[in-house]
Amino acid sequence: MFVFLRYLINKYPHGSQRTLEILPGFISWSFILFPVWGSIFWPVGVAYFIIAFNVYWLYRSLTLAVASVMSYYRIKAAEKYDWMGDVAGFADWKEVKHVIVLPTYKEPGNILVRTLRALGKQTIGAKQIIPVLAMEERAGKDINDSRIKQLETEFKDKFAALIFTFHPANLTGEVVGKSSNAAWAGMEFRKELKKHKDWDINKMTISSVDCDVALHPNHLADLTYSFLDDPNRYHKIWQGAIVFYNNIERIPWPMRVFNRIASVNNMAQLSRPDRLINFSTYSMSLKLMDEIDYWDTDVIPEDYRIFFKTYFATAGKVEVEPLYISVSADAAEADGFWSTYTNTYEQVKRWAWGASDDAYIIKRYILDDKAPFWDKTIRVFKVIEDHFMWPVNWFIITVAANLPPLLNPTFSRTVMGKTLPQVSSAILTLSLVSLVAMIFIDLKARPKVEGLPLWRKIFSPFEFVLLPVVGFFFTALPGLDAHTRLMMGRYMEYRVTEKKA
Length: 501
What we know:
Strand content: 5-15%
Largest sheet: 8 strands, mixed
Mean pLDDT: 92
Shape: globular
Distance between the termini: 55 Å
Low-confidence stretches: none
Helix content: 55-70%
Strand order of the largest sheet: 3-2-1-4-7-6-8-5
Structural class: alpha/beta
């Protein structure tokens, strides 16, 4: 079977690519439409499908609840822990350097200042940190120069080095975005590395950090310990918990609910090694990054791509390890309700565009003959499951159970037709345990904001009444949009998430 598939991929590279690009949209639309046409022609099959899916959703909800609680308490403990006490036990800890790649376009200068100030407060010490401001030439010389001046005024002598790179516009074969910019910055840093004889590539990490992220003071100390303590350090990617809490109380209610749920979900993933893949802000050894020649330049989503690129390049030896540290990022925000809504929608659509990587992942899976078969199969299956089902879940758990009795009057008079909505509702009601856990963890994890009105604090848990609406507009719809665009060959262009000063 694999021999035949490899033959097809090698003989028809473009055709196989387009076929695999069509697959996510085809599968998601098939699942969404099955309860509609199936209710007319095969209502019993639809009923069993819906019940099975609801049981699957209950399982995922309960495991998410357990994982979120476990992660939260481990994060709180790790953030208070004296990591430097453990780091000091390594004789060579002062030789470790952390390269922080910060891709930026037109973000306000004070956003970058906040990010660098957080780096300057790291308990590991600023002289072991090398921020690389990855700027875009297309932002314009005036914007870049003003931000450089602003940053150098405060941080010029703060770190081991402060490096600025300028990604040229319109390079052949590149897709505009974070990945191509980070790749250029990585290549430029490779040149800089050769100038410093005291920088040892074997004792350096490199992190992709969104420019609006404020790392916890213990982040790089924890990373240093994990790096030095792990004999397989050159085959590891370290991932913290991305939480969108920097500006959570400033954004409108519906977008706030989405970002609160997303933050808790990201925390939970740290306790799910079967599903943990690096996302947004992550770290690995510079040696590993250099061996795979840095990020790819022809893609929009770079995080899952970099995992599978390293995974297959090392015959399946790379693993993602959790850092139980919160990574505080900005939620998408703009001026006014509708602008913030659009900004959030476009950001989620870009995340959902990660399905465009599935063609690459599946092809690498088929062509690979070195990684352990079951390990790579489970990893690829989990990613495909998450990507393919992204737009589907909302439709099945909210409206599907009502369709067979509604569209097929004959079936509605049967015992199964009469009880399907009640059985489905009972199963999904049990999954509310997960929602209660997520509300609890969110309330515990969110930073306290001074001056927040009392009524906002009281009604905060009740904001989740909007969850079905939020799920449609910020999960199902942008996911279906991305899948359909990919299926139709209408490729997305990178849209930078607007940052408010």
